[in-house]
Amino acid sequence: MKIKLLLAILLFCLTSSVFAKNSKLYSSGDLTCNLITDIIQDSRGFVWVATEYGLNKFDGMHFVQYLHNDRDKTSLGGNFVRCLYQDSKNNLWVGLSSGIQRYSPENDSFQTIYFDDGMTPFITEITEMSNGEIWITTGGRGVFVLNKEQNRLIRLNEISKISSSFIGSIYEDNKHQVWIGTDAKGLFCFDLKTRKFKKKYNALE
């Protein structure tokens, strides 16, 4: 109920500021699913709502729903959409329970980005570092970086020692230290410049 109310308020605020005379209150009934996992607004003004069953795009008036289609390789790669991210080049990344895709606004389709060993892991977070690298964290499979020339995801071997953990969050501070939160092995501090770990923090410290 709280998620439904939050979505209704958010979409109402977005639409009422532009369409004050003809505003409409939207609810989760306009979505593919009311189990919302992430919400972002892209550089073109579209609001994207990720759910556990499909992806939704809102233009201020109408929703467009995206679902997986086995007969269409350019469709959404899976219906469980875990997270969304827009990088500095305005690329929209879609993290799924089984891999990652990049949205193509030119033809309203999705391009699957493949991992170097053919896996399709559960994506937990997508972020861009200050050096321009796109990092992908996964549940139990480690951290990957986008090889922009090959358009593939390569495992970051420097962080392989915590790859067995479920990595739930990642953050780069203003000193270029990357903080990596795991479910079982504590908090790690990784130096982006030296590519080495600085410290590990356990729950009892």
Question: Can you describe this structure?
Answer:
The protein is mainly beta. 7% of the residues lie in helices and 42% in strands. The radius of gyration is 18 Å and the shape is globular. Strands 5-6-7-8-12-11-10-9 form an eight-stranded mixed sheet, with no helix packed on it. The protein has a four-stranded antiparallel sheet with strand order 1-2-3-4, with no helix packed on it. Mean pLDDT is 85; it is low at 12-21. The termini are far apart. The protein contains one helix and 16 strands.
How many strands appear in the DSSP assignment? 16
Please state the average pLDDT score.
85
What order do the SSEs take from the amino end to the carboxyl end, as H and E? HEEEEEEEEEEEEEEEE
The biggest beta sheet is recorded as: 8 strands, mixed
Shape: globular
Extract low-pLDDT stretches. 12-21
| End-to-end distance | 38 Å
Strand content: 35-45%
The radius of gyration is 18 Å
- Helical fraction equals under 10%
In spatial order, strands of the major sheet run 5-6-7-8-12-11-10-9
SSE arrangement:
Layout: H1 2-16, E1 36-41, E2 47-51, E3 55-58, E4 63-66, E5 81-86, E6 92-96, E7 99-104, E8 109-115, E9 123-128, E10 134-138, E11 143-147, E12 152-155, E13 167-172, E14 177-182, E15 187-191, E16 196-201
Parallel strand pairs: 8-12
Antiparallel strand pairs: 1-2, 2-3, 3-4, 5-6, 6-7, 7-8, 9-10, 10-11, 11-12, 13-14, 14-15, 15-16
Question: Can you give me a brief rundown of this structure?
Answer:
By secondary structure, the protein is mostly beta strands.
